[in-house]
Amino acid sequence: MRWDIQHITRFNYAAPARDSFNEAHLQPFSNDQQIVESFVLKVLPSTRLRHYKDFYSNCIHHFEIPEPHTTLHVESQVPGATMPPKWLALDATSGSMTRIKEAMQGERAYDFVLPSRYVDVAPETWRLAVDATHGEEDIWQTAVRVMRYVHGHLTYESFSTRVHTHMREVLAQRRGVCQDFAHVMLGLCRTLKIPALYVSGYLATEKASATHAWVEVYVPGAGWQALDPTHNCTPDETYVKIAVGRDYADVPPVTGTYKGTTERTMDVVVKIEKKI
Length: 276
What we know:
It is built from four helices and 14 strands. It is α+β, with helices and mostly antiparallel strands. It folds into two domains: 2-83 and 252-275, Immunoglobulin-like, CATH 2.60.40; 97-250, C8orf32 fold (Roll).
């Protein structure tokens, strides 16, 4: 699938803001499942852009705007292509949970069995994970069981949470959006010592195009494998991967600080045009 993605974030301030320091996680990965042909990032007011790779190999763009401004416009444009991924089939087997310690030998695995800002591994979370996977002995099938539990236990409801909502609150109210589904699945997997990371990206469907979040788990012998608890599936070529981290806190599309009024609005528009 070929695509052109336009992602616009616009901040409007009630009074001039200044000394604005920002980072953007907007440049998708190029790997064996997707190709980024080019990447253009436009920021208004105009400023110098710098970029670097973080610990998880995400490309981060940094920019500063010291002068007063009442709006901040951040726009990325990305043409590229995705190929049908070769994830494990949902009914595949991978080996006994007694081998789960081998997962710690995987790339970056240690960070992804620990708690993080929006994900916990408390005893209550472990109890839910054990109940959700009772009787399952295969590593991959355990992760699939967790995905199915999260999908069946939570109700998707737009605007029911905030970007800073912790998984404990999501479990208590049993509703949320895609990042909440991902956070809950991360917590359940991590309590079982299955390394699990957060993926931010885009999803282009016939109904809409939007930012999205899903999960990758590390399976010994198979590597990192993707699961989407929001849709109860493995991602296909309609998914575009931007960045990975321990949870949303590591990969927000645009984040920063500034001096000035706390009264502001933010508008986000994502357009994905699929090409033949």
